[in-house]
Amino acid sequence: MKALIIGYGSIGARHAELLDSLGYSLACVTGNPSCPYPVFPDIPEAVQATSPSLAIISNATVDHLSSLTSLMDTGFSGLILVEKPLFNEPYALIPPRDTIRVAYNLRFHPLITRTRELLTGQTILNAQFHVGQYLPDWRPGTDYTTCYSASRAQGGGVLRDLSHELDLSCFLLGCWKRVTAIGGHFSDLRIDSDDQFSILMETACCPAVSIHMDYLSRTARRGFVITTQEFCIQADFIAGTLTMGTTVENFPTERNTTYENQLRAIMIDDPRLCSFEQGMDIVHLIQAVEESATTNTWVTTS
User: Fold this and answer.
1) Which CATH number fits domain 2-83: 3.40.50.2020, 3.90.1150.10, 3.40.50.720, 3.40.50.300?
2) Taking a C-beta distance cutoff of 8 angstroms, is the pair 182, 294 a contact?
3) Distances (CA, A) of 48 to 8, 27, 74, 96
4) Domain chopping of the chain, boundaries
5) Overall CATH class of domain 106-255+276-300
6) N or C: at which end does the chain have fewer Cβ atoms within 10 angstroms?
7) Which of 90, 52, 253 is nearest to 37 (CA)?
8) Residue-wise pLDDT tens for the chain (302 aa)?
9) Is 120 left (phi over 0), alpha (psi -120 to 50) or beta?
10) How far, in Å, are 60, 139, 173, 204 from residue 5 at the CA level?
């Protein structure tokens, strides 16, 4: 099995390490001198030389479209995993989509698997998602002002960086129908991207969904509360717990658990993987959130 990694930053290195452990032969398209795998200067040369069956696009979000187009232009017919979000903004002209998946790896967290089981057949009344961590603490030993998260031009900003919560809300509660939001850059962080958003929306299966995401929480947090007609589910990704009333279920996970689960899933094209269409829907949701924050209005899906 052969895989091509396009972009060898922190997430590309993680994918490479895990694929290596799963028995893949690896090559990379990167300018990173620390890459330990065979390196090629561009995508066409890499595809011609290595004939991979899997390609992972893990460079800056703003480069996803050009990388994907270049890859498809080579005639590559294997599966493609594109890091989230799929694109920086919606595009009218898009490549063929049936072999493309989007890397929303939290879909493969055991907390999410269990929550989907519990929600089967339930009438959902409301849901609240929250995620936050102080950006300077994200990558110890590095200057946060130089990372892509700090740069809107590179596709950074909390709305895109933490779009897992947007995907999870749709994955668990159905496609979004309308949305409004408040967000932008409010702190003294030395970045030009957005540092927090508070979102309110309606989905196909839930009349009231709120999502808060930020680069500002000094104590890292990630979780959700979903209330149904019969019970309330409280999930804490940091603690690895799912609480229903007095019952607490524990789901301990390692740092790479969801990434490895996702890569194993792509080997069999698991239906839980985020499809191209679903990934594009999140890109449109991001655009709608930004529009609503700018215009102070509700935005409805087209």
Assistant:
1) 3.40.50.720
2) no
3) 19, 12, 8, 20
4) 2-83, 106-255+276-300
5) alpha beta
6) C
7) 52
8) 999 999 999 899 999 999 999 999 999 999 999 999 999 999 999 999 999 999 999 999 999 999 999 999 999 999 999 999 999 988 766 666 789 999 999 999 999 999 999 999 999 999 999 999 999 998 888 898 988 888 888 888 999 999 999 999 999 999 999 999 999 999 999 999 999 999 999 999 999 999 999 999 999 999 999 999 999 999 999 999 999 999 999 998 998 999 999 999 998 989 999 999 999 999 999 999 999 999 999 999 97
9) beta
10) 13, 21, 32, 36
Residue with tokens 């609503």: 292
Total Cβ atoms within 10 A of residue 214: 22
